[in-house]
Amino acid sequence: MRKVLEEGYGFLFESELMDEIVVNGVLRKYPKGEVIIDYHETIKTIPLLIEGAIKILRQDEKGDELALYYLERGDTCSMTLNCCMGSQKSEIRAIVETDTTFISVPVQKMKDWMKKYDSWMAFVFESYNNRFNELLDSIDNLAFHNMHERLHKYLKNKTLVTKSTELNLSHQDIAYDMNTSRVVVSRLLKSLENENLIKLGRNRIQVLDFDAN
After folding, report:
1. pLDDT tens string 13-52
2. What's the CATH architecture for 2-116?
3. What is the DSSP letter of 158?
4. How far is CA 200 from the centre of its chain?
5. Rg (CA), the chain
6. Residue extent(s) of CATH 2.60.120.10 domains in the chain
7. What whole-number distance in Å separates Cα of residue 174 and Cα of residue 186?
8. What does the alpha-carbon distance between residue 187 and residue 164 come to, in Å, rounded to a whole number?
9. Do the beta carbons of residue 54 and residue 46 sit within 8 Å?
C-alpha cells in the first residue's frame, strides 16, 4: 500500500502521516457502476483515490439527481469530509465511474490528523476549495446556458417590437430588463456574437438571427 500511496499523495503528506495512513487504511477496489456511498448512510471512512474516477451525485426533494463533480487520483470527497465533521448522514451518492482503487481511512482519524499534521489540514482545505470551484463552474454552466437562451429570445422579441434588427441598447439596459448583472449580459452578448447570431457596436446590437421562433 505504501508504494501506491506515495505515487498519489507522497508529494502532499509528510512521512509520519503516510505511516499512519498505511497502518489505519484499507486498500479497496471497485468496478465501474458500483455505489460506494449512498444517501442517508452513516459515513465511516474517507476515500483517498489512487486510480479511477468516482461520480458524486446530489438528489433534490423530487428525487432528481445532479452530478456535482468527479473525484480522480489524488482527490478525496469534500462532501464526505463535511458529513464527517458534522457527524451527519450522507447527503450524496458516490458511484464508480471507471474501475477504481482507493484507500479507505476511518473517519475518526480525520479530526486527529487535522490537529497533528499541517499537510492534512492543507489537503482538506484544498479539497474544499477545488470542489467549491467545480460547483461554481457547474452553476455557471446551468445559469448561463439558460440566460443565453433567454437573452437571445429577448433580443429577437425586441426586433419585433421595434420593427428593426438594429437595437439601440446598452448592456446595462438589458441587465435591468432581465434582472441580472451587466457583467453577465456582456459575457453572454459576446457569446452570441461569436455564434454569429448578433453583431455588437457601441450601445448598438444588430440581430442577425431575428426569426422569432
Report:
1. 999 999 999 999 999 999 988 999 899 888 888 889 999 8
2. Sandwich (2.60)
3. H
4. 32
5. 24
6. 2-116
7. 9
8. 23
9. no
CATH 1.10.10.10 occupies which residues in the chain? Answer: 142-207
Say whether pLDDT at 212 is over 60. no
Closest CA to 123 of 184, 191, 74: 74
**Helix, strand, or coil (residue 203):** coil
Query: What single-letter DSSP state applies at residue 42?
Result: B
What order of strands is seen across the sheet that includes strand 204-207?
166-167, 204-207, 198-201
Provide the mean pLDDT of the chain: 84
- All 3 cell numbers of residue 18? 503516510
- Cβ distance 43 to 37 under 8 Å? yes
Residue 87, pLDDT > 80, answer: no
In the numeric block, the cell 477504481 is attached to 100
- Cα separations in angstroms, 200 against 14, 157, 160, 187, 195: 55, 17, 18, 12, 12
Between CA 20 and CA 170 the distance in angstroms is 60
Q: What is the pLDDT of residue 85?
A: 60
Dmax (CA) of the chain = 75
Q: 131: part of which helix (H) or strand (E)?
A: helix 118-162
Domain 142-207 has CATH 1.10.10.10: yes
Q: Read off the pTM.
A: 0.62
Does 171 score more than 60 pLDDT?
yes
> Among 148-152, 161-165, 203-207, whose mean pLDDT is lowest?
161-165
